[in-house]
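Notes continue from the previous slide.

Worked example: a multi-chain complex. Inputs as given:
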Amino acid sequence: MSKMPTVKDVAEYAGVSVGTVSRVLSGEAAVKPLLRERVNDAISALGYRPNVTARALRTSRTDVIGLVVPDITNPFFAQLAASVERAALECGHSLMLASSHNDSEAEQSHVSAFLDRSVRGIIVVASSDGSGLDLPASVPVISLDRRFGTFPLVSTNHAQAATLIADHLYGLGHRRIAYIAGPTDTEAGRMRKEAFVSRMDGFGKTGEPVELEIAYGRFDYESGERIARELLSYPPQDRPTAIAAASDQQAIGALRAARDLKIDVPRKLSVTGFDDISLANLVVPRLTTIRQPADMLARRAVSLLLEEPPGKGDEMVDGSLIVRGSSGPCPQPGASGRK
Amino acid sequence: MSKMPTVKDVAEYAGVSVGTVSRVLSGEAAVKPLLRERVNDAISALGYRPNVTARALRTSRTDVIGLVVPDITNPFFAQLAASVERAALECGHSLMLASSHNDSEAEQSHVSAFLDRSVRGIIVVASSDGSGLDLPASVPVISLDRRFGTFPLVSTNHAQAATLIADHLYGLGHRRIAYIAGPTDTEAGRMRKEAFVSRMDGFGKTGEPVELEIAYGRFDYESGERIARELLSYPPQDRPTAIAAASDQQAIGALRAARDLKIDVPRKLSVTGFDDISLANLVVPRLTTIRQPADMLARRAVSLLLEEPPGKGDEMVDGSLIVRGSSGPCPQPGASGRK
DNA sequence: CTGAAAGCGCTTACAG
DNA sequence: CTGAAAGCGCTTACAG
């Protein structure tokens, strides 16, 4: 292939200086219509495309937004990534996506790599409450969904959302409840759990007492399945009547465990999730969960990043309760055994 | 933040020329140990990091591999992306990921964007058999899983794998089978279907006849659910005893439909998928499917891309049959209705 | 409004 | 083995 044409070629072809070419390219500075037209003709005649690397070197700016997620294989993050890409595109920016495999070292090095490429800004969905960044960030950084270092956070209001689930289950009459929590080294995991627990404690004080058992795991299918299997191995009268999980994946794993143990959901056991991944509406039974407004979160994160000066304050977006088939009234004691 | 140090600063600090700094950076050229050490000291003292943009401009090369997938929200592509990232990292390269939302224009523009950034090479999982690229590609391009333009393809041997499924179902005694195909504008969709059909035709000629119905959809959950619902609405004696789907997502949708219609899988109906996404092992019943060796595919694609000269020939990797609970012997006629 | 020129931070022939 | 210098393709003060 022949070498790509440069501003110089365009300038020669159009009979102007490279400065003029650059000026019509930027669209900013005023250029006489005649010259502008000659330049544009030259550009299309030559099939010229600006060299973004040179431009970046000169201006130390690009239109790339870097996004790092803990694990692209997690459906919620995949959806979030798709939303961020759409939001970036809407603002005329493109997205570079990196997955850190839940490894905070990899996370660090991805962020550094973005910095090295002088991206316009970086959005990070932290893999854990790491120390954040030890490099000086020369571009804006926004935490999304989970806090990264001390950078501003855009996230669902985890506490409000967890409260919605607590109210739902308590309202259905459940008084022996298990909570499958997310990793304690993630803010999302902690906040969801604490809000859920404190709401239940509140009910316990003002109304009927609630037995609450808490188990900790990762956010994935396997954790949910393993933990639920354990919780459900108790004799029926000691077994929870509802399991609230900190993620849809955990909840789907719990559904799987219940199924294996032939425990009818929702008649004998209610299960709830968190995220509303697309699968939540497809499992059997369909999962009651919290919808996180991914599009909104993405748009807010991109906006904060691109604002001048970049946004400094945290932003919370409310989640909403989606009631489906996996949650129902607490089974009456003694009404079991109808096989 | 103060300006980042440059080779010039390092050179001054170490009392050498910038050329020497560059040479120790590259590690290639021989530099006297004494100077090398002084330069390295200067680098760490100053916290110097090479400017990759400048380097890219000068050499018109980077260590970035661009990957574009049709939809990052599809679990199979997410897994493939994770595998490609790992493979790239192993070779000292980093990954830029873009999702085309199944839009071939977006796909084109992502590829162009990569080209503009002078990436080391591009791997594309085509969203459809587009015209491929109309720009001159100045770097190697590899098609992964689905052919992009005329670029070399690394993929599972779709035909061999589809044959495995056909043999499995025929071997279980199924003679009235429905096939949920993928989009006909994807090579993967066509090849899987054709191999399945031709294998069944072969059985029909040498053994017992097979009734085969084919329905076309996208690769997603919804298509599978919708199509299966239709297929299963026939009266029991006309209904297929097995549904083979071109993707796990379709198969999981079909499972959902069967469940809604109270058709017992696998006793009344066998369902098979293709891909072996992590969910396949979690649905109820667990899904019989074809495992695509994502890690291997990813590694081969990266290798071909990085070879000098870049690989030119297609590569096929065999898939393997994973038998789980969703497939079983063909139900005996008349043995129904045991409610 | 336009051109000539400097410079972004590197790498790499070219001399020595 | 090392230094001085050119140049990658842009953008942007600086003159005019």
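Summary box: Residues 6-8, 18-19, 22-23, 25-26, 29, 50-59 of chain A lie near DNA strand D (CB under 10 Å from a C1'). Confidence is low (pLDDT under 50) at residues 335-339 of chain A.
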